[in-house]
Amino acid sequence: MERLNDKICIYINKNWIKDMTNRAFAIANDVDEKTVRRIKEIKDADYSISLDTLQRICSAQGVKLSEFFKMIGE
Q1: pLDDT higher than threshold 60 for residue 1
Q2: For the HTH cro/C1-type domain, which residue ranges apply (predicted)?
């Protein structure tokens, strides 16, 4: 069973980071570049996205947290 954290990071990577550079996504979403790398490498690392980081990204994408969880099927 896929962990919720993995689902979150995979969704962000596939749908929002896509072909953006780490730096471009970090600037556009008010997060650190290191955080973007961790999100992209979720299958190879033990990273847990914080609620604050998720909120920042969702806000920058114009999505409420409740909507985001519906989008990922949770």
Answers
A1: no
A2: 18-72
Structural domain total, the chain: 1
* CATH code of residue 45: 1.10.260
Token code pair at residue 15 = 């749908």
The answer to whether residues 35 and 53 touch, using CB atoms and an 8 Å cutoff, is: yes
Q: Which domain holds residue 32?
A: 4-71
Q: Which amino acid is at 33?
A: E
Q: Is the pTM of this model over 0.90?
A: no
Q: Classify the C-alpha dihedral 71-57-5-9 as positive or negative.
A: positive
Alpha-carbon torsion (30, 15, 62, 50), positive or negative:
negative
